[in-house]
Specification:
Keywords: DNA-binding, Transcription, Transcription regulation. It holds the Pfam family LacI. One of its GO terms (molecular function) is DNA-binding transcription factor activity. It comes from Conexibacter arvalis. The chain is 42% helix and 15% strand. It is built from twelve helices and twelve strands. The N and C termini lie far apart (76 Å). Helix 1 crosses helix 2 and helix 10 crosses helix 11. The strands form three sheets. It has a six-stranded parallel β-sheet with strand order 2-1-3-4-5-11, with helices on one face. A four-stranded parallel β-sheet has the order 7-6-8-9, sandwiched between helices. A two-stranded antiparallel sheet has the order 10-12. The protein folds into three domains: 31 residues, no CATH class; 130 residues, Response regulator (Rossmann fold, 3-Layer(aba) Sandwich), CATH 3.40.50.2300; 131 residues, Rossmann fold, CATH 3.40.50.2300. The radius of gyration is 24 Å and the shape is elongated. The model has no long low-confidence stretch (mean pLDDT 88). Strand 6, helix 9 and strand 7 form a beta-alpha-beta unit. It has 337 residues and is of the alpha/beta class.
Length: 337
Amino acid sequence: MSVTSRDIAREVGLSQTTVSRALRGDPRVAPDTLARVRAAAERLAYVPDAAARWLTTGRTLTVGVVVADITNPFYPEIVEVLHAELGREGYATVLLNDPRADDLARHLRGRSVDGLIVVSATLDDGLAARLPRLGVPLVLLNRDLDEIAADRVLSDNVAGGALVVDHLLELGHRRIGLIAGPPNTSTARDREQGMRAALAARGLPLAPELRRAGSFSHHSGYQGCVELLRLPEPPTAVVCASDVVAFGALDAAKRLGVEVPRRLSIVGYDDIAMAGWEAFALTTIRQPLAQMAKRSVRLLLERLRPAGGSPPPAAPPRREVFPPHLVKRETTAAPAG
């Protein structure tokens, strides 16, 4: 027989009303009471009835997390933090892997989630037009959509692009290549903007023949780096749109017998865990992904259950931008000769 909230109430000596409030994360419940109820629920293996909860409260205590490609190691790092943070607040996580705008709209109309954290928004996927009309609170994390009125948590990608250039110029590089990301993403757009502005400020505009573009993938980095290294005058350094792209560039350099960093410097972006592995030791730009993910959860929960000084659901959208940092490892050095 399944455990109910009444069983938990008897276990902890509280009223069933208080236990029900605690189980749905009501901010009026004292923290110590909330902890007692959650501990008892875990001991008794309590499983909430999502359908009954929605009928009685209009809430599912479930948050959807939208990502583009869960096989890309960038996304599991963020999802892990989101899942842990939401779980601590009593929310389940539903992973929506690369849903089309129409599919996502149908999902939300069914009210299977209370809110969304969108990690992989693209500038042309139709989300901007659809999501506000669905009335589901959401937070944009990592990527921006200029025309949508929503809370967002980002890193300063323009500043990050400039940091890469400053580092390479200080090492003495002047012929710098770029393997850019998809043009329909704010991250790729802004990183390239920062790189171009920093180069132009030094009188070194990015040469058209030194630019390649593709997806945030190993294949894109490999193919782009092969093409750049086969130029009559190849670059001495390559800036990559992400760490995964940089891993592909490293493999391309190895395949062509180009020693990194003695003959070619390579820089990534994101500082995912793999970037620090000895096999890669990748110089990169660090986004504080864990901090950004935790903050996005907090902003969403303030919309879902406003209390005290939290903004009401209809308050103006908030924009929080985290600074990036250069992480120097072993894939960059002064150019040979």
